[in-house]
């Protein structure tokens, strides 16, 4: 939901701030995401990009460059931190993914990546910045605690209703099987 709000705000600010240019020009919005997957002795960070052309015309010579990952802290496992495409038509989306391995325990804040592109109506190269990354807590013990809490939540969601039904049935059975105190008192009076 928040990402959609960012997209809408970015698009509206572009329209309001650049009144002199035509609405038909290409305008790129870049989303940068990262997810951590824990391996036995390391963590892999999968970085993915979605490049959206929210304008109506084509963007040419689109290049993505994400050199925000220091080589002393990260090792590239697969993919490239940069890529280029010949064109991105209006209303279309490009995707790019690469995987890194964390070398040391740290908290990392990912800066925005830069996307450069050409528009047919302008001679100057255009730039777009991606969304920044949230805080990445790398090789942390907190990850294991969060995983355990997540498992507890999964069990509560999956087995909670079943446990409630079992408790309700057992209480109902207890009430039916066990004689009440008033019945016991009445039977004593009769004797």
Automatic annotation (TrEMBL):
It comes from the Eukaryota. It holds the Pfam family TRAP_beta. Keywords: Membrane, Signal, Transmembrane, Transmembrane helix. Coiled coil: none annotated. The keyword Transmembrane applies. One of its GO terms (cellular component) is endoplasmic reticulum. Residues 1-22 form the signal peptide. The chain crosses the membrane at residues 159-180. PANTHER family: TRANSLOCON-ASSOCIATED PROTEIN SUBUNIT BETA, TRANSLOCON-ASSOCIATED PROTEIN, BETA SUBUNIT PRECURSOR TRAP-BETA SIGNAL SEQUENCE RECEPTOR BETA SUBUNIT. This is Translocon-associated protein subunit beta.
């Amino acid at each position: 939901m928040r990402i959609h709000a960012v997209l809408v705000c970015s698009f509206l600010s572009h329209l309001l701030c650049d009144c002199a240019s035509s609405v038909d020009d290409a305008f790129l919005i870049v989303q940068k995401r990262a997810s951590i997957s824990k391996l036995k002795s390391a963590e892999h960070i999968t970085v993915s990009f979605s490049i959206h052309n929210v304008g109506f015309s084509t963007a040419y010579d689109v290049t993505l460059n994400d050199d925000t990952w220091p080589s002393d802290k990260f090792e590239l496992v697969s993919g490239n931190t940069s890529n280029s495409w010949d064109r991105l038509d209006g209303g279309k989306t490009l995707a790019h993914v690469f995987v890194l391995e964390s070398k040391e325990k740290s908290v990392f804040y990912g800066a925005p990546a830069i996307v450069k592109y050409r528009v047919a109506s302008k001679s100057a190269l255009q730039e777009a910045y991606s969304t920044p990354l949230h805080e990445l807590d790398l090789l942390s013990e907190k990850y294991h605690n969060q995983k355990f809490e997540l498992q507890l939540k999964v069990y509560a969601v999956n087995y909670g209703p079943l446990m409630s039904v079992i408790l309700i049935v057992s209480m109902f059975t207890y009430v039916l099987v066990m004689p009440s105190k008033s019945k016991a008192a009445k039977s004593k009076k009769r004797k």
